[in-house]
């Protein structure tokens, strides 16, 4: 089966991010960070629902009790989709008013991990070392794991839940930590992959059912599959847009890879060359499958 790339959500996001496949509804949830929108798209009907946010929205994840938990501005919030209402759960980085949440994901125990960064002056231009990585527990207590982050980005967990994978984009690396699923604590930080020349900036990522990582490469126009055990790149899939931002597996058997992208900062000439920038793509024929997303338990 050959690899195919199709543009499936044709309405552009400024900065599409954080795709999550919702198995029960058969829908793809994703955000437009600077467009300040949370989208839910149904591939069966091609219908898209949207909730607007007041501030930049870095991530949105399903909540086991219903609705979603989001990282909006410098707050963890609860979103009721039906009423489109957002209530604050916790505020972080109170000493850094220019910060915002970026990517986030739920661990296998139901905690939400999400990191921050300074608000960009223009794409990838920002005050450095302002971000941190946080987790939100089910009792709504916030834990700060470390700081000195440039752009907190992709994150996921190994299939045995003993390793946490993480990307701080401007380090151009994918890192790993030992992970304690019982406490949510991380330790023993180490590099598992260094981006090659021309691959772009590592952004969002996900893990497949074989324990391999898929990394969207911003300014690289591609998604790469890497083996975190060996640090070897196994596969590269090129896309028709440069600013690929994140990815997740979905579809009936989790064999479709959905990829978000961005168009913010592009001028008319750039857009003429890449008219699908900011759209969502579906890659099929990869020979890989994903695993269901976790839901926040609090």
Task: Report what the structure shows.
The protein is mainly beta. The chain has one domain (4-284): Neuraminidase, CATH 2.120.10. Helix content is 2%, strand content 53%. It has one helix and 24 strands. The strands form six sheets. Strands 1-24-23-22 form a four-stranded antiparallel β-sheet, with no helix packed on it. The longest helix has 6 residues, at 268-273. GO terms for molecular function: calcium ion binding; enzyme regulator activity; gluconolactonase activity. Its cofactor is Ca(2+); Mg(2+); Mn(2+); Zn(2+). Residues 15-262 form the SMP-30/Gluconolactonase/LRE-like region domain.
How are the elements arranged and paired?
Layout: E1 4-9, E2 16-22, E3 27-32, E4 37-42, E5 47-52, E6 57-62, E7 68-72, E8 75-80, E9 85-91, E10 99-106, E11 112-118, E12 131-136, E13 142-149, E14 152-157, E15 163-168, E16 173-180, E17 185-194, E18 201-207, E19 213-218, E20 222-227, E21 232-238, E22 244-250, E23 256-261, H1 268-273, E24 280-284
Antiparallel strand pairs: 1-24, 2-3, 3-4, 4-5, 6-7, 7-8, 8-9, 10-11, 11-12, 12-13, 14-15, 15-16, 16-17, 18-19, 19-20, 20-21, 22-23, 23-24
Protein name: Regucalcin
Enzyme class: hydrolase
Family: Belongs to the SMP-30/CGR1 family.
């Amino acid at each position: 089966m050959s690899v195919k790339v199709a543009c499936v959500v044709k309405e552009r996001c400024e900065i599409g991010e954080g795709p999550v496949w919702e198995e029960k509804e058969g829908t793809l949830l994703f955000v437009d960070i600077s467009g300040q929108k949370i989208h839910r798209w149904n591939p069966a009907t091609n219908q898209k629902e949207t909730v607007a946010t007041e501030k930049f929205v870095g991530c949105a994840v399903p909540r086991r009790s219903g609705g979603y938990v989001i990282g909006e501005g410098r707050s963890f919030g609860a979103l009721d989709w039906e009423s489109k209402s957002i209530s604050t759960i916790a505020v972080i980085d109170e000493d850094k008013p220019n910060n915002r949440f970026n990517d986030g994901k739920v661990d296998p125990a139901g905690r939400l991990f999400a990191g921050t960064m300074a608000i960009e002056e223009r794409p990838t231009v920002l005050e450095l070392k302002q971000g941190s990585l946080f987790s939100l527990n089910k009792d709504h207590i916030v834990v700060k794991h470390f700081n000195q982050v440039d752009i907190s980005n992709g994150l996921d967990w190994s299939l045995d839940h003993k390793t946490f994978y993480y990307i701080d984009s401007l380090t151009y690396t994918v890192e790993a930590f030992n992970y304690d699923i019982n406490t949510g604590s991380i330790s023993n930080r180490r590099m598992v992959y260094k981006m090659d020349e021309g691959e772009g900036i590592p952004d969002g990522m996900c893990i497949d059912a074989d324990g391999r990582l898929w990394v969207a490469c911003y300014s690289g126009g591609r998604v790469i599959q890497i083996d975190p055990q060996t640090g070897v790149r196994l596969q590269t899939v090129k896309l028709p847009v440069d600013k690929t931002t994140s990815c997740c597996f979905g579809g009936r058997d989790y064999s479709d890879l959905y990829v978000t992208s961005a168009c913010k900062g592009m001028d008319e000439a750039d857009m003429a060359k890449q008219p699908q920038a900011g759209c969502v793509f579906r890659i099929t024929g990869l020979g890989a499958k994903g695993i269901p997303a976790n839901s926040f338990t609090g």
